[in-house]
Amino acid sequence: MPSSLPSTPAAAPRREPQFMRVAETQRAPLRFFLDGHEVTALQGDTLLTAVLMQQRRVRDSEFSGAPRAGFCLIGACQDCWMRTEDGRRLRACSTLVTEGMRVLTRFADASAGQGEAR
Ligand code: FES
């Protein structure tokens, strides 16, 4: 049965952001890839800011599977670890997002806790 709903493009899934930018909106834009979808950020954004401008989580808890969005925002709590598509670990709150960066919020690898850290 044909749908009467308007068609939607096959783009990134609709996400509800955790953060809303209210200042420094004139910085140069850049693009990065979040779970394979191209999104935008501004030069000088931390990875945590860039991701939470797109959605409400940066990863899932390795213990409960619950969504996590960082806690301290200053590199102390270890709640914001993400991975690049090539497997490197990044602390999102202390890593600047860069042009073309490719990061994942979900990873099945049980070896979380190993690898390169910043
Ligand atoms: S949010 Fe606490 S270490 Fe990144």
UniProtKB/TrEMBL annotation:
Keywords: Oxidoreductase. GO terms for molecular function: iron-sulfur cluster binding; oxidoreductase activity. Signal peptide: none annotated. Pfam families: Fer2_4. The keyword Oxidoreductase applies. This is NAD(FAD)-dependent dehydrogenase. It comes from Paraburkholderia ginsengiterrae.
